[in-house]
Structures are given as C-alpha cells and as structure tokens.
Amino acid sequence: MANIKAVRGTRDLLPTETALWNHVEATARAVFARYGFGEIRTPVFEVTELFARGVGEDTDIVSKEMYTWDDRGRAESDRGQSLTLRPENTAGVVRAYIEHKMAESGMLEKLFYIGPQFRRERPQRGRYRQFWQIGAEVLGPPWSGSDSPLRDAEVLEMLATLLNELGIKGWRLALNSVGSAEDRKRYSAALREALQPVKTKLSEDNQRRADTNPLRVLDSKDPGDQAIINNLPKISEFWGEDSRAHFEQVKAALDACGVPYVEDHRLVRGLDYYTRTTFEFTVSDGSGLGTQNALLGGGRYDGLSEMLGGPKAPGIGFAIGEDRLILTLQAQAKEAEQKKLDAFVAPMGVPQNPAALKLAQELRAAGFEIEVGDGSFRLKKSFEAADKLARKMIIVGEDEVASGQFTVKDFAKGEQAKIPREELAGALKS
Ligand code: HAM
User: Fold this and answer.
1) How far, in Å, CA of 357 to CA of 365, rounded?
2) pLDDT for 174
3) Which tens digits make up the pLDDT trace of 390-415?
4) pLDDT by residue (tens digit) across 118-132?
5) What is the DSSP letter of 233?
6) What separation in Å is there between the alpha carbon of 296 and the centre of ligand 1?
7) Are strands 262-263 and 274-283 parallel, antiparallel or unpaired?
8) Ligand 1 — pocket residues by CB below 6 A?
9) How many CA atoms lie within 13 A of 326 on its CB side?
10) What CA–CA distance (Å, rounded) separates 418 from 410?
11) Ligand 1 center to 279 CA (angstroms)
C-alpha cells in the first residue's frame, strides 16, 4: 500500500527544528511584552464572509487561495454554512475586537498572535499552504490615539528591535503611504484610466487587475510590465494634506529612533484594507528566499472595523512569515559557519615558530584574520587544520624564511604559488 504523506504545501517540524521555532517565539513574546502587547488567540476557521468583507473579494487571497467548504453540521442552523481556514489574521482579530466590545474601554488595544494560516499558493521555498505568522494589531477608537503616526513608528521600531535581537542580518525596511481611503479611491480611478490605453500590452494577470484592482498592478514582478508601470502616476501625487503630514511624522519618528528605511512608492500590498502607511521587511543577505518573498508585511487600516459592522477603530498591524524568518536564520547561521579566516600560517618546524608568529602579527596588523599553527605539527595536520579554518595557507619553512618568498596555497582554486613577503597582503585579498 502506498504511504500516506503530508499534503503538498504542508510540512512536519521535527525536534531538530522546533527548538529554533520556540526560541523565535519566546524572543517575540519577550519583545512584545516590553511594548505593552497582550496575546490574542482566535479560531483557525471563521465564516467565509469575514474574509470576503475584511480582506476584499478582488484580492488574490480571497478570489483564489482560500480553503473554503460548506459545513455539514447536524443542527439546521450550521448546515450549509460556508467556512474558511483563515488565510490571515487581521480580519479575525478585528472581528474579535468588535465581538468582545473592546472599544468600550476607550483604550488603545495592543494585541499579538502566533499561529498557522492557510493559503492555496504554489508551494516553493518559503511559500507554503499552511504557514505560520507572528503578528500584531494596534487599534482603538480615534480618541485613544490609534491613528497617530507615532504608533506606526513604534510598531516599525519594535520590528527592527525584534529582528536585531534575533540576529537577522541585512534586513531592509521598505515604506510607503497609500493615502487615506479617499486618496486611494482617486488614485485607483487615475490608475484605471492610465491603464486603459496600454492594458493589452500587460501580462494576462495584470490585464484582469487593471479593471478589478488596479493598485495591484504596481505589485507586478513581470519584467514585461515594468516599463509601463514606471510611467504610471504615483500615489504620492494623490496624497491629501493629512496623509502627507502623517507620512512625514512617521518618517521623522523613525529618523529620531535611528531606524533605517527606504521609500518605495510602489508598495501598495495585496490586501484591500490598507490606508496610509504600508511596509515590508525583506532580507538580502543569504536568506535564499528571493526578493519577491517578504519576511513580513503590514500597514495601517481605517474602515475595516466598520466594514465588519463595528465602531470606528483605525489601527496598524503586521504579520511576520515565521517560516521565512526561520529559513533566514538557518541560512545566515550556515553562512557564518562557513565563513573562513583569510589565512593559516603554518611553520614547518619548531625553529620557524617565531618567524611564523611575526608574519601573523604583521598580517593581523594589516587587518587580516589569521590563525597560526605550530612547528611540531606534521605537514598533514597543518593542511587539515588550515583547510578547515582558512581560505589560504602560508607555509613558513627554513627556505621561506631565508628567501622571503612564501608558498601560499589557495584551497578554493587548488593552486599553490611562491609569493614575496611584501606581496602577501595583495595575495590574501584576491
Ligand atoms: P501578508 O503580506 O499577506 O499580510 O502576509 C504577511 C507575511 O506572511 C508575508 O510577508 C510572508 O512573510 C508571510 N506569508 C504570506 N503568505 C505565505 C505563504 N504562503 N507561505 C509562507 N509565508 C507566507 C498579512 O497577512 C496581513 N494580515 C498583515 C497585517 C496585519 N496587516 C495589518 N495587520
């Protein structure tokens, strides 16, 4: 009989990996606590209408990626109810916020969550059908300060702190504002108009988006579409005075906290609820994820609570792709492990030890990372140690010391050459 395997796009996490997952989650919990967040756990399935209304019918997520079924409950009241595995958790958190009348406290709510989400995407490295998000939402009535630009900057500064504490290297924060709901509406209309005459030149997916959700055209990575996209109007031309001022204040607070960012006017993100600040963090160094796969994304929203039948409650939130965060940590750890010293200086006999140490001293002073062996090592042992630790090996024998010409072995190239002492520094750089 054929073995039963995990469903495509899902995977098991075994003890060799879960230790790192637990470390990431514990670090996130500790950081969130310092910023005053409390945990919320919402169900993994909800009524389908929540996502249709909350995330938007025309988004890729709702139109083609959700796991939806008609429930077969026994009770008449449940039967035929359309249910969906959550593809994201902002809609669920806002539903809970409304259901539990959290607005009545008049306070700002700061909620975080950690849990699985489900999207029927084409599986690849860093993209799964069941994946984990570590996310948070900050929301409340306007008089709680929920639409203050300070909140956006606080959330972004917290994310920078979390990534740094986890030891993620080379992260990049891309920042934009999609304007108020009004600005966005005017911009969508302008885009639709600008796209009409060039629509047929776009890729198939974008031809559809040009009508249904023109902002999403900006997200396209299709190389054939780029020239057209670069000539489209920019969202910043449609910002009202309030949106512009809001964005300026977010940036000023980030500058004050020393959080680096890059403005990216094409960053509109794929969910319908965003207004004003939108952002994504990517990693360029050794994550192996490719540039299309953001480590995390988020933004500000206004109107989502009302769309779900609740009171006015603007907010801002984010979700980290935990699978991607873990892959990045693993890839970067491997890279660090593989990082080698510039050279291993190997004296060929005990009498050469002082000369070897002196050579190491000079090269270290010139900024190179050097290890020195010992003259009592057999040649084979020196070779093994050097190959493990360094990119190159410099042999210091009796002849070398006398002639000032050193044998340098390059392990990657498998080459060996005699190099005069004064040229060693240049040789180590190559
Ligand atoms: P999102 O950009 O759809 O936003 O997802 C956030 C992050 O989840 C992505 O940046 C990525 O790291 C991860 N992710 C998404 N899909 C997959 C997948 N198939 N496999 C692995 N990782 C994935 C949201 O979900 C919003 N709810 C974020 C938010 C919160 N905005 C405001 N509040």
Assistant:
1) 12
2) 96
3) 999 999 999 999 999 999 999 988 88
4) 999 999 999 999 999
5) P
6) 6
7) unpaired
8) 88-90, 119, 121, 126-128, 131, 133, 135, 137, 271, 294-299, 317-319, 321, 323-324
9) 21
10) 11
11) 12
